[in-house]
Design a protein that fits this description.
The longest helix is centred in the middle third of the chain and has 17 residues. The protein is globular, with a radius of gyration of 20 Å. By secondary structure, it is of the alpha/beta class. The protein has two domains: 98 residues, Enolase-like, domain 1, CATH 3.30.390.10; 238 residues, TIM Barrel (Alpha-Beta Barrel).
C-alpha cells in the first residue's frame, strides 16, 4: 500500500541575523514532510537545505517531490538522487518515525543529557556574551571567525580567551573562509590557546572545479599534519560518500556531522564508529522537526561524547518552531517532547 506524502514550505525569520563567512542569514527556508501509512499513522521529516553550504536548494527538492507524487511506495528513497541529501534524510526520518525508531522508549537506555557548545557571534559582539554563558554553566564555546579582517580577528582572540572560564574550550569556526597563509596564522596562534579545534579553515565548492577542490583538500590534510591544534571538517561533509572518502584518506581530525544533511545517516555513523573517529554532532539550523531526528542520532552515538553543536535555539522569531532550549546540557526528555505535528500544524 502506498504512502500519502505531503509537504509544506516554510520561510521563517530568524530571531537575530546570523553572520558567518558565507554572509548574513536573516531567515530560514526549507520543507516539512508528512508521510502517512495505510493505517493512518504519520511520520514527519525536515528538508533543511543549506545551499550556501553545498546542499540542494529547496526549489530543487520540491521539484523532485513533484515527480515522486503524493502516493509513493515504500521504495520512495530509491527514487531520490543521492545528491539530494537533505531530501533523502527527511524521507528516511519520516519512515523511521512511522516505524517507531526514534521514540522516547528507545532513548531510555541512552544518556539522560549531553553537553552543548555555546554559539558566540562574530567579532567583538562575542565578548559581552561569554560571561553570562559561563555563569549559565557552558564550558565549550564556538566563535564564528573568518567574517572580518584576519588581523582584527586575531587581535580579538586573546580577549576572547581571557574571558573564558577556567578549563573551558574554544572552537574556532571559519566556515572555509581562509586561504593558506591566513589558516596557518590562526593555527600558529591557536596552538598556545585553549582551542579545542579549528573548524573548516578552508573550503572549495564542487562548482568551483575539481582542481581547486583537490588543492583545498590537500591543503587541509597538510595543515592537519603540520600543526598540533586539531582541524575539524564541516562544509567538506555535505554529500553522501564524503565521510567515507575522508576516512579513506586517513583524516586525523574531527568530523563535524550535521545529520540533517546526510541522506544515509545510519551508514555514515557506522563508518565513523568503525574508524573510532572523533565526531561532533551539529545543527543545520533546523526547526523542531529536524532537531528531533538529528538529536536522536546524537544520543545513540556510542563513541566519546563531545559538546554538541546545537547551541542555536532560540533561533526563530516564532518560538513555536524552535528545537530544545540551548542550555549547557541538552536533556533526552526534552528531545522526546518535541512535537513535529505541532510544527506541521503551525504551517497550515
Amino acid at each position: 500500500m502506498p504512502y500519502l506524502l505531503q509537504c509544506r514550505r516554510y520561510r521563517l525569520p530568524l530571531r537575530a541575523p546570523l553572520r558567518t563567512a558565507h554572509g548574513v542569514e536573516e531567515q530560514r527556508d526549507g520543507l516539512i514532510l508528512r508521510l502517512e501509512d495505510g493505517a493512518g499513522r504519520a511520520g514527519f521529516g525536515e528538508v533543511a537545505t543549506l545551499p550556501w553550504f553545498g546542499t540542494e536548494t529547496t526549489e530543487e527538492a520540491e521539484a523532485v517531490l513533484k515527480e515522486i507524487g503524493p502516493e509513493p511506495g515504500a521504495d520512495v528513497l530509491s527514487r531520490v538522487p543521492v545528491i539530494f541529501g537533505c531530501l533523502r534524510h527527511a524521507l528516511a526520518a519520516a519512515q523511521a518515525a512511522l516505524a517507531g525508531d526514534d521514540d522516547g522508549a528507545e532513548l531510555e537506555a541512552l544518556p539522560k543529557s549531553l553537553p552543548v557548545a555555546a554559539l558566540l557571534p562574530a567579532g567583538r559582539e562575542a565578548l559581552p556574551r561569554i560571561g553570562p554563558l559561563a555563569e549559565a554553566g557552558f564550558r565549550t564555546f564556538k566563535w564564528k571567525v573568518g567574517v572580518g579582517d584576519v588581523a582584527d580577528e586575531l587581535a580579538l582572540l586573546d580577549d576572547v580567551c581571557a574571558r573564558l572560564p577556567e578549563g573551558a574550550k574554544l572552537r574556532l569556526d571559519a566556515n572555509g573562509a581562509w586561504p593558506r597563509r591566513a589558516a596557518e596564522r590562526w593555527l600558529e596562534r591557536a596552538a598556545e590557546r585553549p582551542v579545542e579545534f579549528v573548524e573548516q579553515p578552508s573550503f572549495a565548492k564542487a562548482a568551483e572545479g575539481t582542481a581547486l577542490v583537490r588543492r583545498t583538500e590537500d591543503l587541509l590534510m597538510g595543515l592537519a599534519g603540520d600543526f598540533p591544534t586539531p582541524i575539524a571538517l564541516d562544509e567538506s561533509l555535505v554529500g553522501d560518500g564524503d565521510v567515507a572518502r575522508w576516512l579513506a584518506q586517513g583524516w586525523p581530525g574531527v568530523f563535524v556531522l550535521k545529520p540533517s544533511l546526510c541522506g544515509d545517516v545510519s551508514t555514515v555513523l557506522a563508518q565513523l564508529a568503525a574508524a573510532k573517529a572523533a565526531v561532533v554532532f551539529s545543527s543545520a539550523l533546523e526547526t523542531a522537526v529536524g532537531a528531533k531526528s538529528a538529536l536522536a542520532h546524537a544520543f545513540r552515538w556510542q563513541g566519546p561524547v563531545r559538546a554538541l553543536g546545537f547551541g542555536v535555539w532560540p533561533l526563530f522569531a516564532d518560538a513555536r518552531f524552535d528545537g530544545p532550549f540551548a542550555g549547557p546540557f541538552l536533556r533526552r526528555e526534552d528531545v522526546a517532547r518535541l512535537n513535529p505535528e505541532a510544527v506541521w500544524n503551525a504551517l497550515s
